Every structure is written in structure tokens, then in C-alpha cells.
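Standup notes
- HV: blocked on the assembly model, inputs below
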Amino acid sequence: GNSVTQMEGPVTLSEEAFLTINCTYTATGYPSLFWYVQYPGEGLQLLLKATKADDKGSNKGFEATYRKETTSFHLEKGSVQVSDSAVYFCALSASGSARQLTFGSGTQLTVLP
Amino acid sequence: DGGITQSPKYLFRKEGQNVTLSCEQNLNHDAMYWYRQDPGQGLRLIYYSQIVNDFQKGDIAEGYSVSREKKESFPLTVTSAQKNPTAFYLCASSIVGDGTYEQYFGPGTRLTVT
């Protein structure tokens, strides 16, 4: 079946530090890949996405590249801010009739001033 | 503004009572979904619907029921048969057929059963 494995948290960084959150996946066919962000007490917001191999998704300084050869979609940001503190979820949407999303377990990020 | 609304934000119930969580969307999306989120865990799919009057069980449907009488609405009932109903419930919707199946989420309802 489909699965997403995320780097375990929590992750604590100082402001302006470099961020990497690892995500690898197992899926049949050619999935679309997503990063969602969840702020405390809120729903999920789409951060970025990539729909085919070698695509790079980017938004708000965050980037992730769809690597089919390593089945990975690692999230990166060059300089994090306190406002980036949240839980980050990697997810995939695989071939199939319903195109359900399969989520990783989430990574809690805390950025200290 | 287009979006998904869930109400109420917080809900408290006594054990043994059924409770219905509301989800409405004005995005004109065909597909709608219900997820459950427990502390420190990812999201687990409860039910989904791709078209009015049709829905399918997800990974953890036992103890839950849904209906889809209108395109805009997808209410979830947590029945007394659900053994551990206290959780954060998220509703989502998506376009069917655009190739990416990106899902849009509501703000969630936190249900506490005592």
C-alpha cells in the first residue's frame, strides 16, 4: 500500500537557521506530493506541491523537489522565522479511483528568536 | 470568500450520545472527506464522498456515519459505538479530475467526550 515516512520531531531551530524536514514515500504509479502546514488549533493549509518527477514546489521561501529515484520530497527553507513554528505534514495522492491523501505523522517545528 | 466551514469549533458530549459535526463548502468541489487527528499523529481517513448520494469508508470508519444529500454539505455523525471518540476532526474537499487532487481543509472541530 501507499505510505509516507517523515522525519520525527520535534525540531527546534534558532531564527535564520536552515531547515530540512525529510520525507520519503512508497506508492504505486506516479503520485502527486504535498507539504501541508498546521498552525496550533487550526486546519491544514497547503504549503506546496509537485505533480511529477523533478518538479520543484515552492512557496513562502519553502522548497521541495520530487525525487523519483530516491522516492523523496524533502522540505527545505534557507532561513526560518519564528512565525514558521507549526506542524508540517508530508502527503501523497496516488493513482486510484478516489485519489485519497496519505499523510505522514507530522513534524513539529519550533523556531526560537 | 470561498472556503470550508466546520461548526462548532469545540464540542463536548457525554459518553453514549451520538453527535453530528457539520461541514459546508462553497468551493463547488465534488469530493469531500473526513479525517481524524489524534495528538502527535497524522491524519486518518474516516469517510469520503466523490459525488452526491454516494460515499465510501476510509481506514477507520467503524463507529462513524455520514450523508451526502447536497454537494455543499457532508456531515459526520460520531455514534456511541465509537470506542474512543475524543479527537480533532477535519473536513476537506477537492476537485475531481484536475490531476492533482489537492485537498482544501476546514478549521476543524475538537470533540471531547466524557
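- HV (later): unblocked. Chain B touches chain A through 28 residues (CB under 8 Å). The CA atoms of residues 11 and 54 of chain B lie 27 Å apart.
- Next: hand off to the docking folks.
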